[in-house]
Design goal:
The chain is mostly helical and 111 residues long. It contains 2 helices and no strands. The protein is elongated and about 90 Å long. The model has no long low-confidence stretch (mean pLDDT 82).
Length: 111
């Protein structure tokens, strides 16, 4: 070991920068949660428990988004049914429905 080290060109921060699209944070997780994820990684023969936590969070978000969309669809169907409005007929696949040409308003001349 040296008696003195030269830190004049040293840089502060993490040794390896975070990958693009990733942010380094510090969170507190219950011990049993962390142990469970570590056990899952070990059972799979290796990997990274942080990646598994990230995937679990993404899955949760996706399911929450789907629950919201399903709830919105259900509510809209109930509301439409209460007004006795029938949904518009859909055109068969591959058949385009064209809209009528725009109307000309007052004061718009030809040309």
């Amino acid at each position: 070991m040296k008696n003195e080290y030269d830190f004049s060109r040293a840089k502060r921060g993490a040794i390896a920068p975070a990958a693009k699209g990733k942010t380094r944070i510090t969170i507190r997780v219950d011990d049993e949660i962390l142990d469970w994820f570590r056990q899952q990684v070990h059972a799979e023969g290796g990997g990274n428990y942080q990646t598994q936590i990230n995937l679990a969070l993404k899955d949760h978000i996706t399911r929450q988004d789907n629950v919201l969309a399903d709830t919105l669809r259900r509510v809209l169907r109930e509301e439409i049914a209460s007004y006795n409005v029938k949904p518009a007929a859909r055109a068969p696949r591959g058949v385009a429905i064209s809209s009528p040409p725009p109307r000309r308003g007052r004061g718009q001349g030809r040309g």
